[in-house]
Amino acid sequence: MSVNINGSKLADIGRYINLKKRGDRKKYFLNQLVSAGITEVTRKAAIESEHGGVSGIIETTFELYKEFLETGKDTMIVFEDDCKFLSTIKDNSKQICSDIANTEWDIFWLGGCNRKPIRYIGNNCCQVSSINYAQSYIISKNFAESLVAAFSTLDKQYVNIFDVHHAGIDEVLCLYAYSKELVRDAIPTGFYDLDQPLDKYKPKYRAVCYKEPLTTQVNDTSDITHVETSLDEWLALPYNIEK
Length: 243
Fold this sequence. Notes:
Blueprint: E1 3-5, E2 8-11, E3 13-18, H1 23-36, E4 38-39, E5 41-45, H2 55-71, E6 75-80, E7 83-85, H3 87-91, H4 93-101, E8 107-109, E9 113-114, E10 118-122, E11 125-127, E12 131-132, E13 136-140, H5 141-150, H6 169-176, H7 180-185, E14 207-210, E15 215-217, E16 241-242
Parallel strand pairs: 3-5, 3-6, 8-14, 10-16
Antiparallel strand pairs: 1-2, 1-4, 6-13, 7-15, 8-13, 9-12, 10-11, 11-14
Helix pairs in contact: 2-5
C-alpha cells in the first residue's frame, strides 16, 4: 500500500520518527495524519545517541534509509513528529500530488526555511538552493542509496557528518544535493554567504519544493536544544521565488 493523501498517492512508503519518551508527540502526529487524510505512515523509533545533540536523528535517519533500500521501493516520505500540516496540502492534495509526480526530483521538501530564493521550474514546483528547519520530505531511492554509500565507507575524502558544525540531518541533505565535500566544507568555502548558491554550484541531485509551504514545525520543546521553539508561523510564511 502506498502513502495516500485524500486518495492521491504521495509516496511509496512513509515513516515518522519519534522518541519513545515522546508519547505526546506521537499522539499529536497521528492526529495530524488523520486530519490531513494521510494513510500508511508508520513509526520509526528514534535513537537516543550517546553522542547527544543532533546525532540521534542522523543515526535514526540513516538506519531508516537502509530499511527503505531493502524494500526496493522508489520513494519514501519522512516526517519528524513535530511536523504540522498546513491547510494548503489538505485542501489541494490532488493537484499537489499530481505536480510532485510529474516533476523530476531526488528530494522533495514539503516544508522548511528557504534561506535563499528558490527557482521556479514548472508544475507549481521550485528548485531549492539552501534550506533548513525542514521536518518533512520525500526522498528517492537513488538519493538515499548515494547517501548511505557516501557516509558508510572510509576513504581519503571521508566526511564525518557528526563532526561538521552544521550536522543537522536537513543540513546534510541540503548540502549533499551539491556534493559530499560540501557537507564538510560549506562554512570555509562561504556557502552560506552566497546570494544564490545555484549560481556557483551545480547540484548533483535535484532538490525541489512546492511553490508554497505545505508543512511547518509545531511550537514545542526541542529534544535537541531542550528549549521552547516558536517556528510555527515563521516557517509557514510565503517563499521568496526568484523572478
